[in-house]
Amino acid sequence: MRKLVYYVAVSLDGRIAGPGGEFDFYPAGDEQQAAAYSAWCNARYPEFVPTAMRAALGLADTPNRRFDTVLMGLGSYRPALDAGITSPYAHLRQYVVSSTLAPDTDPAVTVVRADPLALVRDLKGELGDDGLEWDIWLCGGGRLAGALLPEIDELIIKSYPVVAGAGIPVFDGDFDPTVFDVTDRDSFDNGVTVTHFTRRR
């Protein structure tokens, strides 16, 4: 069965964005550190690079490695919309959970108005176009992650050495302690750690 994987950048105080949706406060390090970190992320997770940036990064013809679907809330979709991009991940199937977004925003984007848990459970039961069980990337945000916590199988947390002070939490939902086990961790010279967690069954 497909897995739902939450991949997200997080501050030391558990924020994925500032109070106004800001995400430009994450320190990338010096030029060399930033380039090495970016190259590692892009090589390991090419699916997570927006379509408009893939050619410039040499990823235009790079096939998806693990994911064929992305799921996001309106807050995660909004930066692309504000830039005039209605299909930010054209190399994936795109779902946006929103009660206010127009359903015809883009033919490549499916707007889901309610019950994201039912959507994820349906998606998990599907096969990809090639008959394989490609995984689902949960792009954010915190409220959607909180609602989908019962179905999240893995976390990939990019932890940055910065305190936001306020903003959107990585999970925003009901009190529901859920244990995940660390399965892998990589550290970088810019102070970032990338940790993989798997839900304890």
From TrEMBL:
<protein>
    <submittedName>
        <fullName>Dihydrofolate reductase family protein</fullName>
    </submittedName>
</protein>
<dbReference type="InterPro" id="IPR050765">
    <property type="entry name" value="Riboflavin_Biosynth_HTPR"/>
</dbReference>
<dbReference type="Pfam" id="PF01872">
    <property type="entry name" value="RibD_C"/>
</dbReference>
<dbReference type="InterPro" id="IPR002734">
    <property type="entry name" value="RibDG_C"/>
</dbReference>
<dbReference type="InterPro" id="IPR024072">
    <property type="entry name" value="DHFR-like_dom_sf"/>
</dbReference>
<feature type="domain" description="Bacterial bifunctional deaminase-reductase C-terminal">
    <location>
        <begin position="3"/>
        <end position="174"/>
    </location>
</feature>
